[in-house]
């Protein structure tokens, strides 16, 4: 039943999003009543397409870097040599995730100044934790029988890691990446308060000029991006989980 | 872990190397006023050597005590000694640097201080992870840390630091923001719990309700916070304008109401989701036995399902509380008050101290909430730890 | 007395239990045995109305179970299941006292009952009262589960594969315990199992179910000696039938005067034990003792004759 709703709703939302970003003028009649007297109903100070691309670019770059670093660290602490760092890494991930993303962003400004830099660093730092946590759990809870079989058939450590451990852990790591991406999309929006070029600019402009039309426009675009990306990653996970026998974490 | 004798703790070695490196970075910054960038001062240049030496020595000794892997208590003591050294350097350095620096001069902690603080806290965390204290011991430790912090701030020994000078100028605004922030975070938690528990129990009973409710709630959770707060503005503005009496009770497009509503919406998924998961965690055979011995559905809920699900339900509340403390910062952007007001004012004025005045209490509040909730979750676990 | 009268349960047009009629005498153990899907568990669950019958009824001491609200009915009927179903967040004492508490017994009466039951199940009350289920062994958990089902002195005890999760040695001990306690308390028990060995060992009467129907209901000896259908014969196991039969007959039935070499067997041991002793030690007869005195012997030939006669 849910699949039925999804198959109709998904393309519709994608089309709506594309129209909002590429042809914002089409929606002028819709937003007109919300804009104050005499103010424009459609954000035109910069192109919504370039803001979207910059927004997504920031998220993609930060998430890619965070994935690379987090998975590497997770591999290190799940090897016998890195065992001593396990309890510490657990505490750091537990406590680190309580840091509010906005605070991380704000604290990056004194250190790095304004612009895309602090946003990128904040997104990267905050994105590390969910991926690291999931990767560590996934790599340390692989089915013992499979690992024993891999050793028994003569794979060396590197082969076991690349051919068995990482592929089996991948769906769970992907869940971490999804959490990370959702947080990054939201935090990047706030990044416009520190002068990063993101879709948050539209919302902030609306808040500053009391132009509800801008707020709604920006909010809907960011919301649609987040929901569609989240949904796409969930679908991907479900597909992968089917292949590996449905190993998933909450 | 069981390496006995004089073995070195690998994290301890890492902390020592990084910590000694951080001692070579500027410890405090002196600036002519609160806006301009300042000059960094190295730890041993803060004041006369007779003053800086004990502090630097305490930090180094603390880092070295963190090395032996077999004595977690010693490592813990090392982290305390190191932190005391940092405090000493702050207390002694700030007044010394302000002498003759001008009326508007500001002294604030620099990169070296923050790095050392982080490293020493990690050392403490590592030692604590080794010691694995029980829930009561952790509660006592938290109380001791907060008490010490309060004592230091109240005594005024750090009042020369710029962030506290910033605070001195806005005592009332700060108290207001704190009350507002707590009201937003805890008020939305309470509201979400009042709605979410009954809804979660209903979802547990009816799978049709569950399959429609949970996706909607996780959809809400996905919407970026700024967008969510923004979207609440037109909705509540419309309610305020069109529903008679709504404005009288504070419902309007800007301010507390939209922020509060956004937080409640974000909170529903963890509350409802964890209530459903918690109630479903009862072993099927225990449930079958409860039915078989003649418990009514209400008795099963109160005597079996809720007590067994309590730790998971409380974990949901922990997620909500930590998340709301952080998200309430965004309320500062839409006039909802709270610590976010300082953060965004600070960003506007490029005044670092003002940003810190908003961000540091938020971080502390989130951390304390997480630790307290973790302790509660552990206390609520019905069976003795480790045997279940 | 429990009377089951043409009870039927239909799921989506398929009859899971098909017009089963049987009577259970007070103070006896009736074992319902069958393969999975035979309807045995559904039959049991219809007695305390965990499943509502599609038609037919159950009467306990002449009163229809439909006359009472289901949850009130269940408080009068003990229920023990596979994997014990203990409440992990309650102590042993609270678990055992669960039904008395539902029935609002006074506190001191509940405490006394808990201690009495723990003692009956050979568990020291002082030692076990305040433990949590997770701190007990599998066998202990199972005993607490049965004790809980017996706590309110129910008219009837229903057991669904109660020993299914136990390993063979603990299982045999649990079966002996159940027999002993049932004799001591005079309880009426209905027990479901898929294991014919268990049925023969425990049951005063055995009811064999197949495809929702009751195919045979009788004493263990009848089931072994005269299986009503091929299915029953199959369940009993064609090859082992003589041995099963011998295991039901005590030595005192065949004891004769005379001497025999070697160690003596007690009079209440079974012919199967005696046969094993003969084969293992190469004797043609074993001495039989009662209370330490040798009362005669049982010969190999006599055992063989008895097995041939019935099989």
UniProtKB/TrEMBL annotation, chain A:
Q: How does it sit in the membrane?
A: Multi-pass membrane protein
Pfam families attached to this UniProt entry: BPD_transp_1 (PF00528)
**Where does this protein reside within or beyond the cell?**
Cell membrane
* PROSITE patterns assigned: ABC_TM1
**From which domain of life does this come?**
Bacteria
The uppermost taxa in this organism's lineage are:
Bacteria, Pseudomonadati, Pseudomonadota, Alphaproteobacteria, Rhodobacterales
Q: Which InterPro entries match?
A: ABC_transp_perm/SBD, MetI-like, MetI-like_sf
Which family is it part of?
Answer: Belongs to the binding-protein-dependent transport system permease family.
Which ranges carry the ABC transmembrane type-1 domain? 52-233
Q: Which GO terms describe its cellular component?
A: plasma membrane
Q: What is this protein called?
A: Osmoprotectant transport system permease protein
User: Known PANTHER family for this protein?
Assistant: GLYCINE BETAINE UPTAKE SYSTEM PERMEASE PROTEIN YEHW, GLYCINE BETAINE/L-PROLINE TRANSPORT SYSTEM PERMEASE PROTEIN PROW
Transmembrane annotation, as ranges:
51-77, 98-117, 123-145, 166-194, 214-233
Q: What are the record keywords, sorted?
A: Membrane, Transmembrane, Transmembrane helix, Transport
Q: Which GO terms describe its biological process?
A: transmembrane transport
TrEMBL record, chain B:
The similarity annotation says:
Belongs to the binding-protein-dependent transport system permease family.
Q: Which residues cross the membrane?
A: 12-32, 44-67, 74-91, 111-129, 141-163, 183-202, 214-236, 248-269, 301-321, 327-347, 354-377
Subcellular location(s): the record lists: Cell membrane
- Membrane topology category: Multi-pass membrane protein
Q: Give UniProt keywords alphabetically.
A: Membrane, Transmembrane, Transmembrane helix, Transport
Q: Name one GO biological process term.
A: transmembrane transport
Q: Known PROSITE patterns for this protein?
A: ABC_TM1
Example of a GO cellular component annotation carried by this entry: plasma membrane
Q: What is this protein called?
A: Osmoprotectant transport system permease protein
Q: Superkingdom, according to UniProt?
A: Bacteria
* Source species: Silicimonas algicola
Q: Where is the ABC transmembrane type-1 domain?
A: 178-373
Look up the coiled coil feature and give its residue ranges: none
UniProtKB/TrEMBL annotation, chain C:
Question: Electron transport as a keyword?
Answer: no
Top-rank taxon = Bacteria
Q: Name all ABC transporter domain ranges.
A: 2-236
Upper taxonomic lineage: Bacteria, Pseudomonadati, Pseudomonadota, Alphaproteobacteria, Rhodobacterales
Kindly state which keywords UniProt assigns to this record, in alphabetical order. Answer: ATP-binding, Nucleotide-binding, Transport
Protein name as it appears in the record: Osmoprotectant transport system ATP-binding protein
Q: Which family does it belong to?
A: Belongs to the ABC transporter superfamily.
Coiled-coil ranges (or none): none
InterPro entries named in the record: AAA+_ATPase, ABC_transporter-like_ATP-bd, ABC_transporter-like_CS, P-loop_NTPase
Which BP terms from GO are recorded?
Answer: quaternary ammonium group transport
Q: Name one GO molecular function term.
A: ATP hydrolysis activity
Matching entries from Pfam families are given as:
ABC_tran
């Amino acid at each position: 039943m849910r699949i039925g709703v999804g198959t109709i709703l998904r393309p519709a939302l994608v089309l709506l999003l594309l129209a909002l970003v590429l042809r914002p003028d089409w929606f002028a009649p819709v937003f007109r009543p919300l804009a104050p007297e005499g103010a424009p109903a459609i954000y035109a100070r910069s192109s919504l397409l370039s803001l979207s691309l910059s927004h997504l670019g920031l998220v993609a770059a930060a998430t890619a870097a965070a994935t690379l670093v987090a998975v590497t660290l997770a591999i290190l602490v799940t090897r016998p040599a890195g065992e001593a760092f396990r309890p510490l890494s657990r505490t750091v991930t537990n406590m680190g995730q309580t840091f509010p993303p906005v605070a991380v962003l704000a604290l990056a400004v004194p250190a790095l100044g304004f612009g895309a830099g602090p946003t990128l660093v904040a997104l990267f730092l905050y994105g590390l934790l969910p991926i690291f946590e999931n990767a560590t759990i996934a790599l340390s809870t692989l089915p013992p029988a499979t690992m024993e079989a891999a050793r028994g058939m003569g794979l060396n450590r590197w082969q076991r890691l690349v051919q068995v451990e990482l592929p089996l852990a991948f769906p769970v790591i992907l869940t971490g990446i999804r959490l990370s991406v959702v947080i990054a999309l939201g935090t990047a929006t706030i990044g416009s308060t520190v002068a990063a070029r993101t879709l948050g600019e539209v919302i902030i402009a609306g808040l500053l000029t009391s132009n509800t039309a801008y707020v709604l426009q920006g909010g809907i675009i960011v919301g649609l991006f987040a929901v569609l990306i989240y949904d796409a990653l969930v679908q991907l996970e479900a597909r992968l989980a089917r292949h590996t026998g449905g190993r998933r974490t909450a | 872990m069981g390496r006995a004798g004089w073995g070195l703790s690998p994290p301890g070695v890492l902390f020592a190397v990084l910590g000694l490196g951080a001692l070579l970075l500027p410890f405090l910054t002196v600036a002519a006023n609160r806006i301009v960038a300042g000059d960094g001062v190295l730890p041993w240049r803060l004041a006369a050597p007779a003053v800086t030496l004990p502090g630097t020595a305490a930090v180094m000794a603390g880092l070295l005590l963190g090395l032996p892997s077999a004595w977690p208590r010693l490592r813990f003591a090392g982290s305390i000694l190191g932190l005391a050294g940092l405090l000493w350097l702050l207390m002694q350095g700030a007044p010394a640097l302000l002498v003759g620096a001008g009326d508007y001069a500001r002294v604030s902690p620099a990169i070296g201080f923050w790095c050392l603080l982080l490293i020493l806290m990690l050392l403490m965390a590592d030692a604590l992870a080794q010691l694995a204290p029980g829930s009561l011991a952790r509660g006592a430790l938290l109380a001791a840390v907060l008490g010490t912090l309060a004592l230091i701030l109240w005594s005024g020994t750090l009042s020369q630091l710029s962030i506290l000078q910033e605070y001195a100028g806005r005592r009332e605004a700060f108290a207001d923001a704190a009350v507002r922030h707590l009201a937003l975070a805890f008020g939305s938690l309470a509201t979400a719990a009042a709605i979410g528990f009954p809804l979660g129990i209903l979802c547990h009973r009816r799978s049709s309700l569950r399959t429609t409710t949970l996706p909607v709630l996780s959809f809400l959770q996905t919407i970026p916070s700024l967008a969510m707060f923004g979207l609440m503005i037109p909705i509540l503005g419309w309610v305020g304008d069109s529903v008679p009496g709504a404005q009288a009770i504070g419902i309007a497009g800007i301010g507390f109401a939209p922020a509060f509503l956004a937080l409640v919406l974000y909170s529903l998924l963890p509350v409802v989701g964890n209530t459903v998961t918690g109630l479903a965690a009862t072993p099927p055979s225990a449930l079958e036995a409860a039915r078989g011995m003649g418990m009514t559905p209400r008795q099963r809920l109160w005597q079996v399902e809720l007590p067994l699900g309590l730790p998971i339900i409380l974990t949901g509340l922990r997620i909500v509380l930590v998340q709301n403390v952080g998200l309430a910062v965004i309320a500062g952007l839409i006039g909802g008050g709270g610590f976010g007001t300082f953060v965004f004012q600070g960003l506007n004025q490029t005044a670092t101290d003002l940003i810190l005045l908003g961000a540091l209490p938020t971080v502390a509040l989130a951390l304390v909430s997480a630790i307290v909730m973790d302790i509660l979750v552990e206390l609520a676990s019905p069976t003795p730890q480790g045997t279940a | 007395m429990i009377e089951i009268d043409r009870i039927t349960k239909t799921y989506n047009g398929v009859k899971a239990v098909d017009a089963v009629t049987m009577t259970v005498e007070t103070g006896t153990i009736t074992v319902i045995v069958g393969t999975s899907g035979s309807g045995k568990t559904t039959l049991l669950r219809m007695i305390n109305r965990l499943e509502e019958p599609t038609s037919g009824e159950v009467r306990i001491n002449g009163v229809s179970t439909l006359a009472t609200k289901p949850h009130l009915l269940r408080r009068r009927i003990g229920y023990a299941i596979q994997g014990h179903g203990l409440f992990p967040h309650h102590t042993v004492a609270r678990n055992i006292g669960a039904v008395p508490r539902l029935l609002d017994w006074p506190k001191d009466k509940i405490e006394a009952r808990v201690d009495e039951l723990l003692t009956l199940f050979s568990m020291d009350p002082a030692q076990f009262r305040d433990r949590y289920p997770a701190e007990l062994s599998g066998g202990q958990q199972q005993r607490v589960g049965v004790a809980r089902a017996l706590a309110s002195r129910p008219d009837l005890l229903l057991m669904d594969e109660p020993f299914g999760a136990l390993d063979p040695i603990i299982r045999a001990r649990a079966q002996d315990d159940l027999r002993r306690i049932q004799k001591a308390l005079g309880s009426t028990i209905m027990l479901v199992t898929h294991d014919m060995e268990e049925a023969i060992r425990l049951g005063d009467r055995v009811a064999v179910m197949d495809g929702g129907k009751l195919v045979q209901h009788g004493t263990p000896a009848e089931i072994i000696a005269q299986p009503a259908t091929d299915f029953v014969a199959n369940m009993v196991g064609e090859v082992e039938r003589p041995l099963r039969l011998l295991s039901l007959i005590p030595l005192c039935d065949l004891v004769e005067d005379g001497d025999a070499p070697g160690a003596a067997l007690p009079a209440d041991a079974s012919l199967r034990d005696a046969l094993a002793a003969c084969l293992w030690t190469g004797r043609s007869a074993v001495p039989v003792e009662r209370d330490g005195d040798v009362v005669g012997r049982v010969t190999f030939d006599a055992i063989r004759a008895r097995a041939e006669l019935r099989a």
